[in-house]
Design a protein that fits this description.
The complex is a heterodimer. By secondary structure, chain A is an alpha/beta fold. Chain A contains 7 helices and 10 strands. Chain A has helices at residues 56-63, 89-93, 111-121, 126-139, 155-167, 185-200, 212-218; strands at residues 15-25, 31-41, 45-50, 71-76, 79-80, 96-100, 173-177, 204-208, 221-226, 229-234. The chains are: A alpha/beta, B alpha+beta.
Amino acid sequence: MAERRKRRSAVPEKEIITLTKVSKAYSTGAPALKDVNLHINRGEFVFIVGDSGSGKSTLIKLLLRELTITSGYINVMGYDLSKIRHRKIPKFRRNLGVVFQDFRLLKDRNVYENVAFAQRIIQKSNKEIKKNVPSILAIVGLAGKYKAKPRQLSGGEQQRVALARALVNKPTVLLADEPTGNLDPKNSWEIMKLLEQINESGTTVIVVTHNREIVNAMQKRVITLKKGVIISDEEKGGYIDED
Amino acid sequence: MRINSFFYTLRQGVRNLFRNKWFTLASIATISSCLFLFGLFYAIVTNFQNIVHRAQEGVAVYVFFDEGLEDSRIQEIGDMILRRTEVSDVHFVSAEDAWESFKTDYLGDYADGFTENPLQNSANYEVYLNDVSMQSALVTYLESVDGVRMVNRSEIVATTLTGVNALIAYVSVGIIAILFAVSVFLISNTVMIGISVRKEEINIMKYIGATDFFVRSPFVIEGMMIGLIGAAIPLGIIYGVYNMVMEYVTARFSMLSSLLKFLTVEEVFHILTPVSLGIGVGIGFLGSIVTVRKHLRV
């Protein structure tokens, strides 16, 4: 295992995510994360891979501050998440776009309202919303479907809406938890291309995925988790076979 | 909160009513049922209380004076009685008034045989009480007053009315407790349905960075509107039913109307309307707060 681990040579100029000896244990069962050290710089594109039960979802939940760490130190975008007050969490999350495997759209609202919702939360004026939402829908290729309800869209389209919602507030970091998990290969690639574009515009992108083909093809930084421990952290890495 | 955010929240609250039609209907039905029972019970109890109160008002204590007592002392006694807190009213009945009244009520033309007033010594005060249960205490006091020869009272009526009052109070507390328990059960069930309907939506809002206030506001507005509608419906029904029953009773049992004075619909609704609306809105407010709160810590 030790030889798999490659230390990143470049010293980060500006760390946007820092985890130092982070452990997370649930009230029952084995620890989900053990002594994890992780540093991600502003503007990076990072894949987090690993089998089921490796701790990927726990890691994402910790970064979202959905869960709190059991021990260690975690800092995301300057927020110490082990100490952040409950009332400060919304403000923290507004700089953190998030996309899920199951899209999590508001089913009773159309595409426009789903995206506009993120803007309403940060109290943008109607004028700004009317300008920003069509613009972001055009970027994700859904300008013509702004009136459609989620159930009228394909999986790929729904994920684009989720992406538009995550991006409309111009987040510093975008977390994507299995964004291609429910999509066919064609739509999966289109979503990944969009994520790459977003990253090129300066947003830090962290993608949790099982998609070996995409990870190997994109040649980005790959962090591999196994049983709650980082077993590999490679620049331009690939999907590591457990066998 | 910005003005457009305020209107957005308000709009969402109203839209939520229609988005979750079945939940809205179930909630309104639950609150309406509870408040209908409450309203009905209130209307009956207040009428009972009114009847008993009127009966109490008619119960008097009669105070007779020592023979030859000076008018100034009689006046003093009257003032002393009137200053008592349990006393609502005092009427002076002179010996002549007493005789006139007796003649009218019992003798008629036979009174002509009397040349002198046989009730010479019957001047008295008729003393009316606020609370008939205080009658014994008042009588004890009156009997100790200098110049008072005799105090007449109706102990059986006072005891009976006091008992009826106590009974109404116990029954009211019992029925209110039962209604409260039923309401809590029905409303908690409705809230549980609300939680399952709302869970995902609230989670999404929280992930995007909505504050607790922003998440909660539309649900609270929705809850309060459900409460308002849920209270208005039974009020309307009870208003109609009460009027119909009063008209029917007045028309069919006109004999009763001189004995039993029922409250007018305005008198009943003067209290029932604000109380019911307050309870309805309060239930809606608390219900929505509880429903949403469980999911805010995401």
